[in-house]
Design goal:
- The protein has two domains: 77 residues, Alpha-Beta Plaits, CATH 3.30.70.930; 157 residues, Vaccinia Virus protein VP39 (Rossmann fold, 3-Layer(aba) Sandwich).
- 42% of the residues are buried.
- The protein is of the alpha/beta class.
- The termini are far apart.
- Helices cover 27% and strands 35% of the residues.
- The protein is built from seven helices and 14 strands.
- Helix 3 runs parallel beside helix 4 and helix 6 runs parallel beside helix 7.
Amino acid sequence: MNYIGCFFKIDSGSLDIQTAIDILVAELGQVGFESFTENPDGVEAYIQKADWNASLLDDIQILQSEEVTFSYDVKEIEQVNWNEEWEKNFEPIVVADQVSVRAPFHKNPGLQYDIVIEPKMSFGTGHHETTHLMIQHLMELDLHGKKVLDMGCGTGILAIFAEMKGAASVDAIDIDNWCYENSLENVERNNCHHISVFEGDSSLLKSSAYDVIIANINRNILLQDMPVYTDSLKENGILLLSGFYTEDIEKINASAETNGLKQDKKLTRNNWVGLKYVNLH
């Protein structure tokens, strides 16, 4: 499977570089880009060749913004060793001095929870604000004996953490084959025995009832699938949502309230948001 790589560089602008990169990544993710590598002055973005069309970039609003100017190159990328590419750039992270997220070649820091991840082309190393926010939310939950869903699982990092926190069973679902395969590998790598990984979308949830649902996707998918998440939650079940900006909270809250959910907690990190809801049905 070949990919198209778009290599974006920020040339000038009044907008903070990290903010500009975050917005660009979020907008590219909404039109089908699957993987991103940030650098000090820009970002590399990858999409499957079969899904690529040059007109996709016409819909990326920040590329038209007066606050920042991007230049970019587009190249076809043949299949490469993504683990090797990732190893060149990835540094281990720590969340609240309790959770470490690292690669197999990093030293174990000896924290309470140690997650070993090789993401290949999958999203979710813990570096991105949304994954970090979800880990923070999960740290505060008692998951012992709970049934958990990780929707849009990426690398499987959140499903793995849920099992480490005592979940009795975890379903991890992603529509992308790379993510499906990568999650299976990472589940095995972390010696997890209660995680089932599926390739697909929310249509797989027809007869499921979860205590906790995690959905770290993009705003449009969250809004589209909110009724499905609600129907799949037990009474007083918890829904954790991320993958959107503070500006999107009003729309997300409106949809959640329409579906019988009550916001219980909000976490933010560099303008990204992680919301916790309780199902009142």
